[in-house]
Amino acid sequence: MSADAIVEVAGVGKTYEGRVQALVDVSLGFPSGKLSTLLGPSGCGKTTLLKIIGGLIPATTGEVWVKGRKVEGPGPERAFVFQDFALLPWATVLRNVAFGLELRGVPTAEREEIARQQIVEVGLAGFESTYPHQLSGGMRQRVGLARALAVDADIILMDEPFSSVDEQTRRKFQEELLDLLRRKQKTVIFVTHSIEEAAYLSDRIVLLSPRPGTVSKIIQPNIARGQRSADEIRRDKNYLDAVDEIWQILRRYVA
Amino acid sequence: MPRTHRPENPRVLWHLVSFALVFGCWEIAGRWPISVAFPPFSQTVLALLRMLADGSLPKAYLSTLQPLVIGVILCGIAGIGFGIGMGLSRAVEWFTLPVFIILQAAPMAAIIPLITYIYGIGLTAKVLAVVFLAAPVVVMNSYKGIRNTNPSLIQMCRAFLGTRSQEVVKIILPHAGALIFAGLRLGLAMGFIGVVIAELLITPTGIGDLITYHSSVADYPEMFAAVASIILIASLTIHGLERLERRLFPPELRGSS
Ligand SMILES: Nc1ncnc2c1ncn2[C@@H]1O[C@H](COP(=O)(O)OP(=O)(O)OP(=O)(O)O)[C@@H](O)[C@H]1O
Ligand SMILES: [Mg+2]
Q: Which of A26, A171, B69, B198 is 20 to 30 A from B236 via CA?
């Protein structure tokens, strides 16, 4: 396992009560400061693995190490972005974004100051006092992202964050995420269904086999992003090769 | 309320029309007459005014409201407490839930003789009648409100390092607030039923006394006025609470996501 892995998963297996074996013997490391995706067929245990890394559910076997410490539960160095947003419906955007800090006991003025910055950062300036039901799905997910950024965790765990928005919004989000990661040093572990999304965003793609999920292959697309535009990246040979390679593996699973 | 919403005006108009229809039919049926014991609307209104003027109606309500208010406040404190306890702790749920399920299904009129046997015919017995009727719905609503908290919000709270008590105060209780309040409103509605049953079955006091007395001396307009007044007061109170509820807990701020 690489030396600079900030998250290490060692022999993790998960069997849900009711004897559903979701994961078996998953071992891999996530390099610091990179975006890694978990990709695999539906029901292969991607969410399960992400929640085990997040400390939200315990592994049945094996262990997870984050920054050299064994995971026993959630921690301040990890922040979660939920697939279903998980926003408080009775709280404004501002309070929702500040909620992680509120739980940590940060004084109101200070946490709202930080939250306002993050709201600007994710492009929601002007929506501070609106409520989640007044926002589109895409905007709600930005709130979820801002909340995760506000607690300033090194590791951001994202469970299919862009799955409930339309294709245009999705592409816009992807660019914004890459843009954000250029400015901030974050390690991102990102669950997705989409081959293109994985290839476009990732430094590393972890392909999981169908249930019970285990690591089937790790692909490093090695796309030189630099200052290139999204369209240039999507025409990059390495990008196209990665998409093809992933598809060659996944197509065997859908048969 | 000084503010008038324009879209509400036609609704108010329809309400008035429907009231006029009902009272009109009542007037006609009373004058027909379908029964000597059924006074027309106009005589009932006059009787109501007479009872207001001679102070017998206000005095009756003063004594009827006592067991009602005490009972509903008791339910509000203890009932919500039990409901929340049951929602938060499996142990409390295990030994309390069956009691309230049985209470909810028990026919009240059958319990009242038991209450009078143990507690006599005073205020205590009447308060208990209110409590027995109102408590189940207050408790069950609080319990359901707590239990139905969106699990993904709880997981979110834990992911952002919330403690169990923060989870309760910041997620579970706000989430359950609307249902708890609705439980209180339904509890009050049941309380009205309870207090009238108690005043008719235990000892005639307050409004129950007015109804019993006037029917025994064949003052049917007075009797009807007493019955109508309790219906009116109960429905106005419940309706007011319903409006307050919609204000305090707007439905769009309760949905999940
Ligand atoms: N709480 C649970 N209890 C029992 N079984 C569960 C539970 N959560 C998930 N599972 C099962 O474990 C398996 C993996 O679920 P998981 O949600 O991790 O898959 P996934 O890869 O995220 O799927 P998707 O792509 O559809 O989101 C599935 O078969 C699912 O039915
Ligand atoms: Mg999933």
A: B198
Measured between alpha carbons, how far is residue B132 from residues A160, B63, B75, B188, B200 in Å? 50, 19, 9, 12, 16
What is the maximal distance between C-alpha atoms in chain B?
73
φ, ψ for residue A191, nearest 5 deg: -95, 135
What is the C-alpha end-to-end distance of chain A, expressed in Å? 32
Check if A14 has its Cβ closer than 6 Å to any atom of ligand 1. no
Q: Which two tokens stand for residue A18?
A: 């009711």
On whether any CB of chain B is under 8 Å from the CB of A173, the answer is no
Contacts of A84 in chain B (CB under 8 A): 152, 257
Q: Would you say the CB of residue A43 lies under 6 angstroms from ligand 1? A: yes
Q: What is the DSSP string of A113-166?
A: HHHHHHHHHTT-TT-TT--GGGS-HHHHHHHHHHHHHHTT-SEEEEESTTTTS-
A94 Cα to chain B: minimum distance (Å): 15
Inter-chain touch B161–A75, beta carbons under 8 Å: yes
Indicate which residue's Cα is closest to atom 22 of ligand 1: A47
DSSP tally for chain B: helices H, then strands E: 12, 0
Q: Mean pLDDT in each 10-residue stretch from start to end of chain B (257 residues)?
A: 56 88 90 84 92 92 93 92 91 88 80 86 90 91 91 95 95 92 93 91 89 90 92 92 90 66
- pTM higher than the cut 0.95: no
Residue pairs between chains A and B whose CB atoms are closer than 8 Å: 65
ipTM of the complex in this document:
0.91
Q: Whose CA is nearest to atom 25 of ligand 1?
A: A42
Residue-range domain boundaries for chain B: 56-256
- Give me the amino acid identity at B169: V
